Amino acid sequence: MVDSGSVTRVLQRLRSQLPEAALVTDRTRLRTYECDGLLHYRVVPALVVLARSADDVRTTVAACAAEGVPFVARGSGTGLSGGALPHADGVLIVTSQLRQIHEVAPHDQRAVVDPGVINLQVSQAARPHGYYFAPDPSSQQICSVGGNVAENSGGAHCLKYGFTSNHVLSVDLVTPQGDSVTLGTRAPDAPGYDLLGAVVGSEGTLGVATSVTVRLVRSPESVQTLLAGFRTTDDAGSAVSAVIGAGIVPAAIEMMDALAIEAAEAAVACNYPDEAGAVLVVELDGPAEEVEHEFAAVERMCREAGAFEQRVAADDDERAAIWRGRKSAFAAVGRISPDYIVQDGVIPRTALPEVLREMTRLADERGLRVANVFHAGDGNLHPLVLFDESAPGQGERAEELSGAILDLCLAHGGSITGEHGVGADKAKHMPKMFSDDDLDTMQLVRCAFDPDGIANPGKIYPTPRLCGERPGKHTGPHPVQAAGLGEVF
Amino acid sequence: MPASVLRPLVRPGTDTDAVAGVVPRLVAEPASTDDVSRVMKDAAAQGHSVVVRGNGSKSTWGVPPSSLDLLVDLSRMNRVLEHEAGDLIVSAQAGTPLADLQEALAPAGQRLGVDDVVPRTTIGGLIATNVSGPRRVALGTVRDLVIGVTVVRADGVVAKAGGKVVKNVAGYDLSKLMVGSFGTLGVVTEATFRLHPVPEASTWLTVEAESPSAASDLIASVVHSQVVPAAVEVDAVPGAPTRLSVLLEGTERGVAQRSERVRDLLGTTTTYDVPLALPGHADGARTLLKLTTQISSAPEIAQAAVDLGFHVRGSVGVGVLYASTGEAARASAAVGTLRTLTGRSGGAAVVLDAPTDVRDVVDMWGPVQGLDLMRRVKHEFDPDNRLAPGRFVGGI
């Protein structure tokens, strides 16, 4: 248990090592950091450190380790699962000032960047050399690379190019014990355990990244983007199945349903086809001749599946216009509903029609609406549960529907998160997806990195395992629970 | 656990069961994850040291185990469990030969994007050793393609990580932690992979150069071109011309057109049946090194290995090379030099396989970053150090 004096002692240690401007202690300013992109969880941190260098991060973590004080790392704060939600008795380490791109090495297809560098800036720096950074969350104009690493947040182009984890070559990590270690190398297949593979997507529970070496991908010679309007999501789903079944791997294949289109129109006037019950955004990239050939096949398949209108982007501006509706969809929903919950479940792609129908039924039962925006190629759904918090009971019903949607995903063999992470929001759902033994085994990694459990505690796992416990079956209450330090959901 | 429960699964070890020269006292041949769990619980109770084997195609690799009471042979666990073509995923038992898996996927026009570089490799062996092959340029490696695993821990507890959907970030990615761990963290009994469609057309284009160094510009021209190679391989033997081969995959028309562009870059090419196997034979009689490097240094590293008398073959387009020699004295002397060179470019030189006289004088794994953390991970997973003791980096 953290005593109130511990954070004070951390502050005293840091005052001798960091400038006063790097330390935020004023209650009003602290409140600036009380949540990340998931607004309905709010916790005011005890102390905020605005790190200006890797050394600042190391110094802060070392002070926390010495005093047993929890710490949470935060980049741009765009996370959607509460992964950067502060700890009330802990230190929030903000890395957004670490924003230098140290090296762009196209001949080695890599770039070395600070964790606070904005995702899109990596591609902008690499583009003159004919390269780009493939992971592209919808928030790529503002989200940080460190956050992408923490959450393994991918985006629309994961289908063809793989996930953030596939694009991180190495990370300098400050471990929860305050040591610096480099995981991975500039070369592939570093010998030893793939600790980097475990760290990417560990949501800040294994340490804080202070430098990230990312893989750069050759900019494609040709990119073709299609917007196709369908009467129904089933028709659009048939087109997706046809494309995948034909052995075509689009760079991206995204779907929006009628309600999501309505929201996007209200927000950014994206001018998607009138009366569309669903739209697909399909992007192919690669060598010009391949793209041309496969794009013609995709257009034909969409037509055969019932697309009543198809538009092909003639240039980058038109491509951006097509993507604008899709990329703004989350924020746009605010235009048609006072409140909403963004879900992030995953299903086997072939289960899509059945899951969408069932989702509609679940929403109807609760008198709520669900807008759907998703990565159709890999089955990563982003249902937006719309509600009005001021209407009695709606907030609870929305929460319940949101959970029911995750159950639906799991019932079809899917996952509770495809790119947003578990964070604070979904920790309680982890036992639905994983057994106690599964979770216990994951926590063996946690114990190796963070034996005192101070790195972003309370995230991912509903009940932490005490490091030092031997693995295996235990009877009676968990020691953490018995000690009053945690509860079982 | 009563001996009668295990008896049908266990037999005495023989010389043919040897792991890097160490003969196990007992061999278990489980047929299911539950069997493996029972075997491991019993082994834990008895304090047995354990090594896992698939088909044994790479059992001479790595440092010999410091102790070996029980060999867990997974060759009976050889079934493809689930192939969902529409979802581009497959699950299989760890003892399934990669070749059998590919055969099962072929009717659907799909494949696991990993090459069979060591004949008879099982998918468990692929995961344990992280050997991928030429197509890694386009499709990634075992590490990138595995999306879920079932693992039996040293204490017999069965755990799953990942899942059966391509996109999934729930919990730690233990699948990746298992890849390349040489069976020292747990027994992987099942794995799920993402698949890729088999392309309509595929062709290798080969050009000869005087040496890897002389091919350096050609390599760079292809790697940084827009032809999207699926593989960029080098094959170089001392005293003979170096072969540089580029694999193109895609549509018939696209491959034909890109072939012309590769010829523009490389000059006159021939088609040549490029061997996917590692250089030399992985049989414990030759020394086999894995050399990793940043991309731009790969030709230089290949050249250095050739100059030291090695047959070099590998993915020069990504910086992963394999080097083989049958001359033990030469191999022993060269490891240090190659370690220095690869180290300078952020890579490593690992001795995968070697005869005893080489093993006796070289550090097989060499220096490894983050070793302290690795030891802590090993301690958490296997506190009694019973899984493949001593076979891995830093004596793990």
From TrEMBL, chain A:
PANTHER family the record matches: GLYCOLATE OXIDASE SUBUNIT GLCD
InterPro entries: FAD-bd_oxidored_4_C, FAD-bd_PCMH, FAD-bd_PCMH-like_sf, FAD-bd_PCMH_sub2, FAD-linked_Oxase-like_C, FAD-linked_OxidoTrans_Type4, Oxid_FAD_bind_N, Vanillyl_alc_oxidase_C-sub2
Source species, domain of life: Bacteria
Source organism of the structure: Luteipulveratus halotolerans
Keyword hit for Hydrolase: no
Record keywords, A-Z: FAD, Flavoprotein, Oxidoreductase
Required cofactor names: FAD
Protein name: Glycolate oxidase subunit GlcD
Domain named FAD-binding PCMH-type: residues: 41-219
TrEMBL record, chain B:
Domain FAD-binding PCMH-type residues, every copy: 19-198
Top-rank taxon, per record: Bacteria
Organism, scientific name: Luteipulveratus halotolerans
UniProt cross-references to SUPFAM superfamilies, sorted A to Z: FAD-binding/transporter-associated domain-like (SSF56176), FAD-linked oxidases, C-terminal domain (SSF55103)
MF (Gene Ontology): catalytic activity; FAD binding
Pfam families associated with the record: FAD_binding_4 (PF01565)
Record keywords, A-Z: FAD, Flavoprotein
Record InterPro entries: FAD-bd_PCMH (IPR016166), FAD-bd_PCMH-like_sf (IPR036318), FAD-bd_PCMH_sub2 (IPR016169), FAD-linked_Oxase-like_C (IPR016164), Oxid_FAD_bind_N (IPR006094)
Listed name of the protein: FAD-binding PCMH-type domain-containing protein
